[in-house]
Amino acid sequence: MKIAKIRLLQESNKSFIVHNERSPFAPWHHHPEYELVLILRGKGRRMVGDHVDRFEENDLIFSGPFLPHQWICDNENSDNQGELPNEAVCIQFVHDFLGDKFFEAPENISLKKFLSESSRGYEFYGKSKSDIIAIVKGMITMNDVQRFYALFSIFEIFQGTNEYHILSSPASVESLLSKENEPMQKSLQFILQNFHKPIQINDLLEVTNMSYASFYSHFKHAYLLTFKDYLLNIRIGYACKLLMDEDHNIAQIAEDCGFENLSNFNRQFKRIKKMTPSDYQKQLFRKTKGKNH
Asked: Which residues of the chain carry a pLDDT beneath 70?
């Protein structure tokens, strides 16, 4: 269960990659390139480092080198015949694709900072998001020269924007990037891919081939929480995303996030968020309605 290292093919006459990807998307993987991913069609669950969220059309994510990630489409396991309606555009480049000195230029100080801090992943919003999406969608039909200069337009937005959320936690990135911490990488991968199902400590002991005492101490050192608290935070975080949809049934959300019953979900949610799921959802939509008036 190692993190797969998957690299797109870069043609010899091109300095970076623009790839139109169709489902099924790549499994849990990483690569040495920076990557900008725009979802054109489809929806599902997205994992970047230890951050889990929903994605849909126009989801826009930028990730630094070797940050593990995966997009799982809702209909990947369906019995639909023919091509699944999931599609993305991926733009990848290595740090020195423009030479050793480009990002060291004084004019690129802000861009260099943006790239250096992308190891935890960014989710864009606002005008920056819409501007980048327009450029990326245009790149699909551009020739190579046009794409090259369009990338500079994206860089210009990168260097000046603060319209993004940082995704993964610092502790998880440090653990994921550590070559000496493979058992903890395996445990995080297992949690992220199975948090919506019942998970027992014995599952993690089997995955990591560790004793209980060794696993407990190593996990807490790597992620600053016990396994149970970490799993709970992943589940509650994902539940908060689902609660943003007013049509979602709270009992179904509890099941989708791996809780064995609604009462336990309500109890644990209140412990973490200091309010019930229904109160959390009401508060979200009071704020939304207030902004629309």
From this structure: 1-10, 76-84, 175-180, 285-293
Summarised one tens digit per residue, pLDDT across range 171-218 is 777 766 666 678 888 888 899 889 999 999 999 999 999 999 999 998
**Domain 170-291 is classified in which CATH homologous superfamily?**
Homeodomain-like (1.10.10.60)
CA distance 78 to 221: 39
CATH superfamily of 4-166: Regulatory protein AraC (2.60.120.280)
Could you give the C-alpha distances from 232 to 146, 222, 271, 277, in angstroms and in order? 47, 16, 10, 14
What are the residue ranges spanned by the domains of the chain?
A: 4-166, 170-291
CA distances from 143 to 139, 222, 224 (A): 8, 46, 48
